[in-house]
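Fe-S cluster assembly iron-binding protein IscA structure dump, as promised
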Amino acid sequence: MNIHISQMAAARLTALLMQEPDADRLAIRVVPLTSGCSTPSFALEMTEVQPGMFQTKASEVPFTCLPHEKTWLDGIVIDWQKETNTFSVFHPHPPFTSACPTPRTEGVSEK
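structure tokens r here:
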């Protein structure tokens, strides 16, 4: 599993987890919000790890997801934007979704 997380994002997520009384049962879940043909967007949520969920760590931050979301987690980039006090979450090479039609090129000539 290849999760790219900046030191600032890891520190911030660790601090948020440590504020919770049941931190040892919690992990960060990257939730795909859109999976259409445009650039996907994501949310981060703190969640209790349920049986059957995939678990991993990146920079000592625990992450979890549903088994079918694993491909979205692989390659994800998480950063902390101190200017806006927000997390930036994106996937530079999102997994292909078969629901997206390929551009029609038949009969189109390049100039």
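The domain at 4-90 is CATH 2.60.300.12 (Hypothetical Protein Aq_1857; Chain: A;).
lmk if u need the other ones
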